[in-house]
Amino acid sequence: MPDNTDNSLIVPAVTITGGTGVAEGGGAVFTIAATSGTASSVAVNVEVAQQGVFTTNTGSRTVTVSAGGTATITIPTADDSADEPDGSITATVQSGTDYTVGTPSTASVTVSDDDPPTPVPDPASGLKLNSGDKRLTVLWSPSATSEGLLGYRVQWKLSSQTWDQAVLANQFHSTTDTRHTISGLANGSAYDVRVAAFNANGVSDWITGQATPAKPKPKPEPSLAFDSVSCASSGSGWVISVTWSKTPESLKPDIWANEAKNRGHRGRQTAVAGTSTTFDVPNAGWYQVGMQAKIAGNKKVGDSEPVRCR
């Protein structure tokens, strides 16, 4: 009896399987199989994807498979030095014109990371706490670890609290900066503050400090006043000795000693840096000793005292 089968209608079915898992740097192997068909070979469309970042050889490609035979593809992976989660390479048979997609149509090969975990970072250093009105400004020097560093955690609490209580009260902050201002604190209460560096693998040792917020004291008003003015004989003349107090210390007053009688001898010293000086005067009698210094806004402060040389 004659064979009436139309071989032109025989279309192969294509499947894919994956090999054993590999460490990064190895090749993920996939086997593509085609059943027998009319054509001697078929061009199979395969899509390669990955979970993680192990290869640059993803995307679509065409693989020629003999009818009734197999073909393999190898996807290389990169052996890097970064610690990362394990992943996989997946290959999937896409539809085509000369074959049908069989089962299994997709396969995965596990890729294992072979790099040691990144250690937790070195701690920060140089913690400094600046007190302000209901706030503390926290400053620190960066961790010596830069690779993989995600930032810093700042925690604070009343000294009477525990650190667990501070966390429950949301008394913490994460930042990539090396300073943070904590506001809304109670003036006059002592606070503990700690800072740690962190990365994906954990938190460094903490550096700690303590400070008390306080309203800044107002700056004292500038002042300039004599503490003592005296005169004593010296050889054939007289010496007037003067001491004074000043606020701020940067004041440099002009000082003079003028003879009162008949507007006689006049002595003057300018921009005196210290808090004492002397004047040599020729005559006995009354002298008017004065001093004056400029402050902000072209205002002046000063003092004046009479002294008698006899």
Task: Characterise the protein shown here.
By secondary structure, the protein is mainly beta. It has three domains: 10-112, Immunoglobulin-like (Sandwich), CATH 2.60.40; 125-211, Sandwich (Immunoglobulin-like); 223-309, Sandwich (Immunoglobulin-like), CATH 2.60.40.10. It has one helix and 24 strands. It has one helix at residues 163-168, and strands at residues 13-18, 22-23, 27-34, 41-51, 59-66, 70-76, 87-93, 100-101, 106-112, 125-132, 135-141, 149-158, 172-175, 179-183, 191-199, 202-203, 207-211, 223-234, 237-247, 254-259, 266-269, 276-281, 285-294, 300-309. A five-stranded mixed beta sheet has the order 2-9-7-4-5, with no helix packed on it.
Number of strands: 24
What general form does the structure show? Answer: rod-shaped
CATH topology of the largest domain, by name, is Immunoglobulin-like
- Classified by CATH, the class of the largest domain is Mainly Beta
Order of helices and strands: EEEEEEEEEEEEHEEEEEEEEEEEE
N-to-C CA distance:
159 Å
Radius of gyration: 44 Å
The biggest beta sheet reads:
5 strands, mixed
Average pLDDT works out at 92
Please tally the helical runs, counting DSSP H or I stretches of 4 or more residues: 1
Strand order of the largest sheet: 2-9-7-4-5
Query: Would you tell me the structural class of the helices and strands?
Result: mainly beta
- Total domains: 3
Helix content: under 10%
**How large a portion of the residues is in β-strands, by DSSP E?**
over 45%
